Structures are given as C-alpha cells and as structure tokens.
Amino acid sequence: MEIRQEGCQYTLYKEQTAIGAARLEAGHVWVEIDPAWRQRGYGSYLLKELLRQNGGLDPKQKSHFTAALPEEEAARALATKFDFVPAGDRLVRRRVPDLSAVGFCHDFLAARLAPGGLYIDATCGNGHDTEFLCRLAGPSGRVLALDIQQQAVDATNARLAQAGLDGIGRAVRQDHARLGEVAAPNSADCVVFNFGWLPGAAHNVHSTAEGSIPALQAALTALKPGGILAAVLYSGQVIGSGEKEAALAFFRALPLTRYTVLVCEFANWADTAPLPCFIIKK
Ligand SMILES: C[S@@+](CC[C@H](N)C(=O)[O-])C[C@H]1O[C@@H](n2cnc3c(N)ncnc32)[C@H](O)[C@@H]1O
Question: What is the predicted pLDDT for the residue at 8?
Fold first, then answer.
C-alpha cells in the first residue's frame, strides 16, 4: 500500500491500482474510497495520514479541519472515529495544544504581567523561558537570567541573540541561592524557576532543596508588591522528591497576610508530573 501526494491531493494505491483519494483544501477534507475496497480500513489509513501530515495528530499543535456532512453510514463512522463533529452544515475537527506545566506558567504570567518590568529567570537552561520573558517584557523591559552551568548561560545568550532579544535579556553564571546579589529588594515583577536538570546535559547537575529554598526566599525578597514567583517543581527517580517536598512546605508556610500561594496540580497525571506553583506578593 502506498500513498502518493501531489500538492493537496493524496492517492492511495494498492499495488498499482488507485483505490482511494483524499484532498485537503483550505482546511476542508474530502476522502473517497473505491466502493469495491470499502469497509477494510483504507479510509482510516488515508485520513489518518492526511491528518498526520498536516499537524492534526500532533498534541503540541493547534489544528482545525472541516468536512462535508456525510450521507453514508460508513463515512459517518469514519468521521466520528477521527473526532469530526457536526457543526451547522458541516463537520468540524478542532484541536487545541495539550497544556503543559511550563505552558500553563507562561499563560498565567502573560495574563497578569505587563511589558516594561524587571523579569528574572532563575534557572535559564536552554533559554526557552528567558526568551518568553523577553517577549513579555518588551523593549522597555529587562530580563536577567541565571544558571550555575556555563553551557546553559551560553545557550541562553545565543538564543536571545538569534531572536534579536539580546537588547532586553542577558544570562549570567550565578547560583540562584545568591539571587539577592543581582536583584535589589522589591525590584522584580516576576521570578521564574523551572527546577531540575539542563535538558540534553548530564542529569547529575540539578537543583536541590539545599539551594532552592534560599533561592525561593531570595526571590520573594526581590519581588515588588504585586510581583509573581512562578516555580515548576519536579520529582522522580533521578532527583527524588526532597526538593519538591521542601518547596511545597516552604510555600504552604508563607503568611497569608503577605502572599497568595497557588499549587496547580495536574490531578489525573502521575504523582511525578511537573507541578506549577505561583506565589503572588501582596
Ligand atoms: C529544567 S532546566 C531549566 C529550563 C529552562 N528554563 C529553559 O527554558 O530551557 C533547570 C536548570 O536549572 C539550573 N540550575 C540548577 N541548580 C541551579 C542553581 N543552584 N542556580 C541556578 N541554576 C541552577 C540547571 O543548570 C538547569 O539548566
């Protein structure tokens, strides 16, 4: 079996015989299988490949497809199998990207912070969060990024330069436990921690409770009133659960009169799932 594609047209061949075709035009899907070959899974095969090639099966992508309302039972079953649902005079299949712990943090911060502030990335790693903070801060803002590994500092500065954001943000090698040395009290609008190890590097260099609790304390001191500390906590085989438990105990003991504390569990994920937390300084 083979699918040959020409532009938006897909043709399904069994040996040298074309037994089905599909087309995608402006998000509108059309699938037809030769009646002699129906009810054998060829429609599924073709439609799945069309969706896959156009981002419809990628959990990180947003996608939107439409199709005509089918008259035949088999075509209706095929549409239902791939989650097309009736909407007015057509079928619609909509996907939003799966929510991740880091994505959720970004959404939360973007909804609450305005351009122009001082933003701190206390664990810059490969610079994804720093880049996000630079875009949020905008040209009138400033982003300071810290990491204990030179490799991470270099990766972050390279990412910022490539994105044309090096006028807004800069990474330096610094233990976040000493964050107080680079940020004055009540100066920061936001401090972000994405704990754990540097993706793509050795797992034995990772944050630990010993350094993370003083760093969280220093971050709260650095925050302005109204500022937000965002932290994604991790646990698991390599890093254990000590840092996560210590951070949660620290957050839960913060006085209600001075801080609002949110612990946002993905309740149907594994216990070791990343845990986004937010502290808002009053
Ligand atoms: C999960 S990664 C961060 C990912 C990163 N924010 C990004 O967007 O790519 C965790 C980072 O924390 C750093 N780190 C661990 N302990 C640290 C410490 N005491 N001070 C500063 N950074 C630390 C690690 O070197 C690693 O790069």
Answer: 92
pTM listed for this prediction: 0.86
To test the pocket of ligand 1, the residue of 133, 135, 146, 147 to mutate (highest count of ligand atoms within 8 Å of its CB) is 147
Output the CA 262–ligand 1 centroid distance in Å. Answer: 22
**Residue to mutate (ligand 1; options 120, 135, 207; most atoms within 8 A of CB):** 207
Q: How many CB atoms lie within 10 A of CB 221?
A: 17
- pLDDT for 140 beyond 90: yes
pLDDT digits (tens, 9 = 90+) for 51-68: 999 999 999 999 999 999
For the domain spanning 2-95, the CATH number is 3.40.630.30
- Between residues 210 and 189, which one has the greater pLDDT? 189
| Type of residue at 130 | T
Query: pLDDT tier at 85 (50, 70, 90 boundaries)?
Result: very high
pLDDT at 87: 96
Cα of 51 vs centre of ligand 1, distance in Å, is: 36
Indicate which residue's Cα is closest to atom 12 of ligand 1.
123
pLDDT-above-70 percentage for the chain: 100
Tokens 């649902």 sit at which residue? 85
Q: Taking phi first (over 0 means left), then psi (-120 to 50 degrees means alpha), and beta for anything else, what does residue 55 get?
A: left
Backbone phi and psi for residue 123, each to the nearest 5 degrees, phi listed first: -145, 75
CATH of 101-281, one of 3.40.50.10490, 3.40.30.10, 3.90.230.10, 3.40.50.150: 3.40.50.150
Instruction: Check if 2-95 and 101-281 are the same fold.
Output: no
Distance separating alpha carbons of residues 33 and 251, to the nearest angstrom:
59
The minimum-distance atom of ligand 1 relative to the CA of 175 is: 20
The domain ranges of the chain are: 2-95, 101-281
Distance 24 CA to ligand 1 centre (A): 43
pLDDT of res. 206: 77
Token pair belonging to 148? 């204990």
Contact 169, 137 (CB under 8 A): yes
What is the whole-number distance in angstroms between the Cα of residue 70 and the centre of ligand 1? 52
